[in-house]
Write a structure and sequence with these properties.
The protein has 330 residues and is mainly β. Helices cover 1% and strands 48% of the residues. The chain is globular, with a radius of gyration of 20 Å. The two termini are 21 Å apart.
Length: 330
């Protein structure tokens, strides 16, 4: 369009997620892009460079926290812009850490001082969002990678302790303590709970699996996997028995759960001029796998399956060269 908004702001993609209204949201270093996966229209919001948090809830309300924790914003579908909700509940200096939501529509908003449980209301005429605080769970959190599985929210703290929050009664329990097993500078980057345990992606040491010690459900054991590169993101494929691992300098790794092995998809397999690490992953409802990289743009693998041939017909690489992207940091 004439307003110049139909483009990305860089190829350094730090986060991607899909809302329930066919929109893929992409967070870059220079702004937020919304891609409609049906029409393939792109809307760029340059008001929020270096946004700290981008997430969606059960009702497809999209939340954003600008750089510097400058309050919470919600996307207004009527005005097509981000606005502050009518109720601001964050205290001065309270740092947002993550957003997840339960099956009954409650929003769990993680901050450095605890977890807010929120209810939202969207005015159908104006599109404005109001939030009410149902309760707050006081819990000191310095780092969090929240993810939801079977009615529980899993998250980590700065000391590499893994917690499980029952979203029905808000009970928090310690699942595993990795603080004594890893160097102090190691960070938890991603969590993926599955039946039988939880995968933990670390900043430099790779991917590990935490599970119960056989015969003693009160104890956990930490097992390494063949993935030795740092891990940025984890995702369970909704259509196949596959777990996707976005690594730091190791490309995209897939694990076929039924065959119990890991398989690496390198950039050489894609025949692309790409070398920067994969930072984020998303599988859309059309079965296209989107990979955000740290400086080499975005890759889309169309109609992905574990046994497909990767070729120019199903692999798309979008960069600033020859496209509407302004640079290669997405």
């Amino acid at each position: 369009p004439d307003d110049g908004k139909n483009f990305f702001a860089g190829n350094g993609i730090s986060h991607m997620y899909m809302s329930d209204d066919d929109n893929l949201w992409v967070r870059t270093y220079y702004g937020i892009a919304r891609i409609n996966v049906v029409s393939e229209d792109i809307t760029y919001f340059d008001d929020f460079p270096f946004a700290d948090l981008l997430a969606s809830d059960y009702d497809s309300v999209t939340y954003l926290v600008p750089q510097g924790n400058a309050g919470l914003y919600c996307f207004n579908e009527v005005t097509a812009c981000f606005e502050k909700p009518s109720t601001q509940f964050l205290s001065s200096g309270e740092s947002p850490k993550g957003i997840v939501y339960s099956d009954d529509g409650k929003v769990f908003f993680f901050t450095g001082s605890g977890i807010y449980i929120l209810n939202n209301h969207v005015d159908p005429e104006t599109g404005s969002v109001s939030l009410t605080v149902e309760r707050k769970i006081s819990f000191r959190i310095r780092q969090v990678s929240p993810t939801v599985h079977d009615g529980c929210c899993w998250f980590s703290d700065y000391d590499k302790r893994i917690y499980r929050l029952d979203m029905s009664d808000c009970d928090i329990s310690l699942y595993a303590d990795m603080s004594g097993d890893m160097p102090s500078q190691e960070k938890v980057r991603a969590l993926l709970p599955v039946d039988g345990g939880v995968y933990v992606g670390l900043s430099t040491k790779g991917l590990f699996f935490i599970s119960d010690v056989p015969g003693d459900s009160g104890k956990r054991m930490l097992s390494p996997t063949p993935v030795k590169n740092g891990v940025f993101s984890l995702m369970e494929d909704s259509r196949q028995q596959i777990i996707w691992v976005g690594t730091d300098c190791g490309g995209l790794v897939r694990w076929h759960k039924g065959n119990v092995h890991f398989e690496e998809i390198s950039y050489d397999d894609l025949r692309l001029n790409v070398r920067m690490p994969v930072r984020s992953l998303y599988l859309d409802r059309n079965n296209s796998l989107w990979c955000g990289t740290k400086g080499d743009g975005m890759i889309r693998i169309k109609d992905y399956s574990a046994y497909m041939d990767l070729n120019d017909d199903n692999v798309l690489h979008v960069t600033a060269s020859g496209s509407a992207l302004t640079n290669d940091n997405v």
